[in-house]
Design a protein that fits this description.
With 228 residues, this protein is mostly helical. Helices cover 55% and strands 0% of the residues. Among the domains are: 5-130, no CATH class; 162-193, no CATH class. It has 9 helices and no strands. Helix 2 packs antiparallel against helix 3 (41-58) and helix 3 (41-58) packs antiparallel against helix 4 (64-78). The protein is rod-shaped and about 155 Å long. Residues 124-172, 191-228 are annotated as: Disordered. Residues 124-133 have a biased composition (Low complexity). Residues 134-149 have a biased composition (Pro residues). Residues 216-228 have a biased composition (Polar residues).
Length: 228
């Protein structure tokens, strides 16, 4: 069976473009399902305009003027919250029933550009503020100060000086001088005795053994002296 593609297409278009109640209802249903999404307003407005043109094409009993007024009011009620002021101004400007759809679209495009420019200005001001502020210095955590090293005098006070021994005088000894050191000069101990050594001597003095004298030899020596 032969068929004419153009004739088939014209038949489909004539069916869906016919000004019938069914087509009008479908077109209005698509129009009322339109949504205006924040951040996608340009695409949302384009879809809404296409849906409105469809309503105008298939209207059966509605005149164009009434359809334009209904479409504008519907769009104003569906706009996002950022268009609150715009919506109030539009409703305030409706002084009669003569609401033009084209005028509404023009003013809506102006509002879209205004909001886009405001966002760009805010972003530019934020970047300028971030650049103008000096960076916050990062202060390192202070470390505790090291304890002072003990001085030489403290070290000397903290330990006892080594005693003189083995015939050597300790130069750091403060209890006696080098000239009075018994270990360096043993004969001075024999001359002065223990009482001649300073009482503050910090270590015990070794007592040297005295020579043993036999009493018999001492008595013979005494008798010999009497005979002489």
């Amino acid at each position: 069976m032969d068929y004419d593609p153009k004739a088939l297409w014209d038949s489909i278009v004539s069916h869906f473009a016919a000004k019938t109640v069914e087509n009008s209802a479908n077109a209005l249903d698509r129009l009322f399902n339109s949504q205006f999404l924040e951040g996608e307003m340009e695409g949302s407005v384009t879809s809404f305009c296409a849906a409105f043109r469809r309503v105008v094409e298939v209207r059966s009993k509605f005149d164009r003027k009434s359809l334009e007024a209904v479409a504008v009011v519907f769009a104003l009620k569906r706009l996002p919250a950022s268009f609150l002021v715009f919506r109030q101004l539009q409703f305030a400007s409706f002084k009669d029933d003569d609401i033009k759809f084209d005028n509404f679209l023009t003013e809506l495009e102006v509002e879209l550009r205004r909001q886009a420019e405001a966002q760009l200005q805010q972003a530019s001001a934020a970047r300028a503020l971030a650049v103008s502020q000096p960076p916050v210095p990062q202060h390192p955590t202070p470390s505790p100060a090291p304890a002072p090293a003990p001085s030489a005098s403290n070290k000397r006070r903290g330990r006892r000086p080594p005693p003189c021994a083995n015939g050597i005088h300790d130069p750091t000894c403060t209890s006696h001088t080098k000239e009075n050191c018994w270990h360096l000069y043993p004969h001075k101990e024999m001359q002065t005795g223990p009482s001649g050594q300073p009482t503050s001597f910090p270590y015990p003095v070794a007592v040297r053994p005295q020579p043993f004298i036999d009493p018999t030899s001492l008595n013979l020596h005494h008798q010999q002296n009497q005979l002489n």
